[in-house]
Design brief:
single chain; three-stranded antiparallel sheet; alpha+beta; about 15% strand; 5 strands; elongated
């Protein structure tokens, strides 16, 4: 993040956002930028977290209904072992519990930014109705 006399430049995951400084009665200098930055963070963490939760949900359903996969062949048993490892956080002896932790952190950030964005909108709606 770089501040200068013209505004603010934010570099986040190969995205670069440049803003001109805006000073007026309705918006503040940091208000417009923070809202945009929060929306980007909200969108990215939402996508990452939802993909991880989706994988855990699908593997959980398939493990709960193992008859859908079958028990007859060696391939179906290997698939069940792979699904169990993916769901529990270990694939081929390598721990991937960090992925579950990443999903949990993304859901926490998604919740916090969503609440903040909602409160901010409500504040501006009340402020506009009073003017």
């Amino acid at each position: 993040m770089k501040f200068d006399e013209y505004g603010i430049t934010v570099r986040f995951l190969d995205f670069q956002f440049s803003y001109l400084s805006i000073w007026n009665e309705r918006t503040s200098y940091l208000g417009v930028r923070m809202n945009h930055i929060l929306r980007v963070i909200h969108r990215i963490t939402g996508m990452i977290g939802s993909i991880i939760v989706l994988v855990l949900a699908i593997t959980g359903i398939l493990l709960n209904h193992r008859s859908w996969i079958g028990y007859n062949s060696e391939i179906s048993m290997k698939l069940q072992k792979f699904l169990f490892g993916l769901h529990s956080g270990t694939v081929n002896g390598v721990s991937i519990k960090w992925a579950t932790d990443l999903g949990a952190i993304c859901m926490i950030i998604l919740s916090i930014t969503g609440i903040f964005i909602w409160f901010r909108r409500q504040h501006f709606k009340i402020k506009r109705s009073n003017n």
